Amino acid sequence: xxxxxxxxxxxxxxxxxxxxRRLGRPAGYLVLAVLAWLLPYGLGxxxxxxxxxxxxxxxxxxxxxxxxxxxxxxxxxxxxFMGVGAYTTAILTTQEHMxxxxxxxxAVAAAALMGLLIGLPALRVQSHYLGIVTLGLSLAFLNWxxxxxxxxxxxxxxxxxxxxxxxxxxxNDYLYYYVELLAFVAALAFGLFVVRTRLGxxxxxxxxxxxxxxxxxxxxxxxxxxxxxxxxxxxxVAGVLYAGLIRFVAPETFSITEMFLLLAMVVIxxxxxxxxCVVGALALSAVQEELTDLSTYAQLGYGAVVVLxxxxxxxxxxxxxxxxxxxxxxRAPGPESATVGPFRPYPxxxxxxxxxxxxxxxxxxxxxKGLVALSEVSLQVRAGEIRGVVGPNGSGxxxxxxxxxxxxxxxxGTVALxxxxxxGMRPYRLAHLGLARTFQNLRLFRRLTVREHLLxxxxxxxxxxxxxxxxxxxxxxxxxxxxxxxxxxxxxRFGLAAFAGAIPYALPYGIQRRVELARAMAGSPQxxxxxxxxxxxxxxxxxxxxEIVKSIRDSGTTVxxxxxxxxxxxxxxxxxxxxAAGRVIAHGSPAQVAADPQVIEAYLGxxxxxxxxxxxxxxxxxxxxx
Length: 626
Ligand code: ADP
Ligand code: MG
Known about the structure:
The chain is α/β, with parallel strands linked by helices. The protein has helices spanning about 1-15, 20-40, 45-70, 80-95, 100-120, 125-145, 175-195, 200-210, 210-215, 220-245, 255-270, 275-290, 295-310, 320-330, 395-405, 425-430, 450-460, 470, 475-495, 510-520, 540-555, 565-570, 590-595, 595-605, 605-615, and strands at about 155-160, 250, 355-370, 370-380, 385-390, 410-415, 420, 435, 525-530, 560, 575-580, 585-590. Helix 3 (about 45-70) packs antiparallel against helix 12 (about 275-290), helix 5 packs antiparallel against helix 10 and helix 24 packs antiparallel against helix 25 (about 605-615). The chain is elongated, with a radius of gyration of 29 Å. Adenosine-5'-diphosphate binds near residues 391, 397 and 399.
C-alpha cells in the first residue's frame, strides 16, 4: 500500500515546488483550451448538440455556484433566470420582430432585473426560508409563461431567428459550439476573477459568518443583492444561448425538475468551486443523456447521489484533489504543529497629552422582552486608554459591546464616538468609522485561510466599488496586489506567517484568538473592543496578549477589554468598570475596584463581603468563563 503511494507522494512534492507550480497553471489552462477546441472533431452530430446544451448548463451552473456556493444564498430560481433570458429573447424576436442581438442584450438585462427582484427577500430571510421564497417566485414565473398568450401559452414560442454572426452559419451545431465556448470561457474567467478577489472574498466571508463580515465593514444587504444580480446575469446569458441554439422555448425547459437537476450538478461538482460547478454540469449532462430511457430511475439516482454527497463529501468532486493531498501529506508535519511567531510591536504613535473622550455612553438601557440586560449604564473612555470591563457572567458585558458595535440597538440611552452619535448605526458603517471588535466565542470564517481573513478585513472599499469589476478590472487586480502586501506585513507582525494558508479552525485555540485579533487590527481602528480575549489561553499566551494589547494602545488605538482574569486586568488597565446585573456598581483603578465591598459581594456573595470588610482588601478571584 505504502509503496503504491510513494510515486504519488513524490509527484505531490514536485507539484509543491513554487516555480513548477507557477508554470503548471498556465500550462494546464493551455491544455484544456486546446482540448476544448479539438473536442468537436471527435463528436458526431447528435453528441455535438448534447455538448452545446451542456455548455449552456455549465454557464448557468457558474451563476448558481456564485450565488449559492460563494455567497451562501439558497437560490432555487436559477433556472427561472435562464427562462427569463430565453423567453425575453423569444418574445422580442418573434412577437416584436427585433433583431437577435439587441434582443439578447435586453434579455440579459431582464434576467439581471429578475435576479435583483428574487434577491429582495434575501434582505429579510435566509437559509431554507429563502429557498422556499425563491422557489415560489420561480413557480410564479412558470405560471405566467404557461398562461400568457404573449409567451405562447403552454405551447411555447417557436421561430426564434438564427443569431446572425458575420456570415457564420450558426444553425450548425459545430460552429455554435465555438460561440458558446467563447461565452463560457469569458463567464468562467469573470467568475473566477470575482471569487479570487475582494468581491468574492467578501461574499465568502458573508457566507461563513455574516455578522463578523458586517463588523469588518462588509455591507451585507448590498452584497447579497450583488450575488443575486450576478446569478441573474449568468442565467440571462445561458437563456440567450439556449434560445439561439434550440430556437424554441417552452415552459417545461425551465421547470422545477430542471432546477433540481441544476442543483444536483452544483452539489455533485462542488458548489464552493466554480470549476466544480462546471464539471458537475458537464458530467451530469452526459450521464443524463446515457440514462434518457431510464429517466424515472435517473431522478431517483440523482437524489440519492446528492444526499450521499451532502453527507459524505460536501465539497463535491471539486474537493477530491484537496482530500487526496491532505491524505498524502498527513504524515508530514502540518502547520498545526508549528507555534506562533513573536509579535512585532507597532511603532509607537506620538503621545497626545489630552486627546479627550473617545467613547461616551449615556444611560444605556437594554431590554430583551422581560429581561433587563443593562440599565442606565453610563461610561466614558478617554482616547488612548485601556479600559477594563469586568463583572460576573450574565452581567451584560457582551450586550454592552453589541450595542457599541451596532449589533443591537439600545432600548434607551445614547452612544457617541468622538462626539458623534452612533447609536443605531449599522456595524459596517461603524467599522468604516474606525471601530473594531473581537467576539467572546470566536467568529472566524470557516472556509477562509488565515491570510484571506486578513485580506477581507483590510479591504475597506465601499460596496459600490464592485462596479470596477465591469468598468476597470485592471484596477481591481492592482488593488489586490496592494492588499496582498499589507496582509503579508500584518501576518508577519502578528507572527502568523507560518499559518497564512491554513484554515484557522484547524489550528490550536491560542492561534485562532491571535488570528481574530489580527483581523480586528487590520483596519487600524481608533477603538478596539476585546471580548474575553484571554479565554482559553495558556500562561505564555496570556503574557503575549498583554504585550500585544499594550503595543496596540501605544500605536494610538483605544482599547476596551472585557476580561475575567483579574491578573490580566491589573497589568493592563488603568481604569476598570464593574458591571453586575446590568448596572455599573464600581469604577476606578484595578486596586480600588478589587477592594470595593460591592464588587466582592457581586462576585462572592454577602458573607464574603462582610469578612472582607474586617480584613485586608482582597483581590477579586479570577473566574473561568463558562
Ligand atoms: P456577559 O457578557 O456579562 O456574560 P451578556 O451580555 O452576554 O452577559 O448577557 C446579559 C444578559 O442578557 C443575560 O441574562 C443574557 O441571557 C441576556 N441576553 C443577552 N443577549 C440576549 C438576546 N439576544 N436575547 C435575550 N437575552 C439576551
Ligand atoms: Mg460575555
